[in-house]
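Lab notebook, design round three. We kept the backbone fixed and only want residue identities now. Task for the bench partner: fill in a sequence for the structure below.
Input structure tokens:
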């Protein structure tokens, strides 16, 4: 008798863009979905500066979640580029998750709202930080939660509303199931063991920038760009890693270094174990601080630091 082999379930794969204002929890959600820290997080707005792919794999799907910079009204050329990068992620998405905060859901700024209006693929409204809604932590039904949720924008465009708390990992599995059901049939796009599209140099730079965000105050974190200049692998010995922190003014350099180098030493001491964890190898970490005047306003510097700026086309002169 011929053995009948089980038929594998259809495989689904695609891209899901995570879009929203700054600090609504997109990076926390991306990390929770993949159960790996692919994106840095902090309480400061505009922590995410790049569109980062967090890759989820299971037996019958591969979903590439695209963590994007927060959509806001830009105040400088850097923020213009970040918003452009965020909205560009919508073009290749098979599903879009629009994240808002449960306690203060707000519409996106006009540019972002207009981009959502153009989306033809399925969209989910993801209400994060729902632990602030009465009844959520006690297991209230979605129907009850919807009665307590009153966003100042229409809901007709969304395929569904999903209430989650990414920080507490509640509702994340339910969201994953809904995204997965909306994904098209297709083969994996990345290696099944891969967790992100970013290389080790990028991840190292982001770890150091995260520690700057945690340790620096006021305007300093926003004026810092972190670039991994050296990543030298040394089997049997510590990897040599050199990261340069670029600031815009000499006064910012002095503040970031601190008295007798104390602040910079603290940033390095906190960065090292996190870098060793992602490298799975001991490292020797060097941090340097350099001044690049007004780098947030200059396309050349923004391109050098990896913020995806396209070169402006020269305007044609009128005759």
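Proposed sequence:
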């Amino acid at each position: 008798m011929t053995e009948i082999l089980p038929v594998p379930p259809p495989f689904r794969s695609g891209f899901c863009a995570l879009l929203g204002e700054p600090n609504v929890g997109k990076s926390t959600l991306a990390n929770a979905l993949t159960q790996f820290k692919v994106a840095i997080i902090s309480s400061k707005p505009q922590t995410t500066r790049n569109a980062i792919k967090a890759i989820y794999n299971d037996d019958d799907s591969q979903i590439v979640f695209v963590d994007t910079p927060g959509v806001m009204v830009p105040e400088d050329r850097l923020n213009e580029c970040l918003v452009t990068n965020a909205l560009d992620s919508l073009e290749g998405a098979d599903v879009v998750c629009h994240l808002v905060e449960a306690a203060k859901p707000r519409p996106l700024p006009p540019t972002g709202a207009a981009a959502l209006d153009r989306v033809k693929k399925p969209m989910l409204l993801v209400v994060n930080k729902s632990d602030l809604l009465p009844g959520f932590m006690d297991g209230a039904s979605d129907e009850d939660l919807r009665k307590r949720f009153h966003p100042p924008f229409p809901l007709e465009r969304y395929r569904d509303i999903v209430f989650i708390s990414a920080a507490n990992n509640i509702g994340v599995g339910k969201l994953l199931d809904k995204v997965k059901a909306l994904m098209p049939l297709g083969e994996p796009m990345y290696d099944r063991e891969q967790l992100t599209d970013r290389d080790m140099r990028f991840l190292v730079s982001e770890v150091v920038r995260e520690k700057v965000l945690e340790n620096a105050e006021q305007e300093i974190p926003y004026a810092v760009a972190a670039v991994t200049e050296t990543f030298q692998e040394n089997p049997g010995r510590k990897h040599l890693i050199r990261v340069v922190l670029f600031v815009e003014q000499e006064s910012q350099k002095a503040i970031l270094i601190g008295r007798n180098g104390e602040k910079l030493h603290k940033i390095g001491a906190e960065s090292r174990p996190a870098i060793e964890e992602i490298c799975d190898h001991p490292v020797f970490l060097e941090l340097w601080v350099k001044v690049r005047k007004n780098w947030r306003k200059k396309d050349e510097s923004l391109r050098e630091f990896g913020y995806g700026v396209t070169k402006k086309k020269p305007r044609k002169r009128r005759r």
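Keep this in mind before ordering anything: The beta strands are 12-20, 52-58, 61-67, 95-101, 123-128, 160-163, 225-232, 239-247, 283-291.
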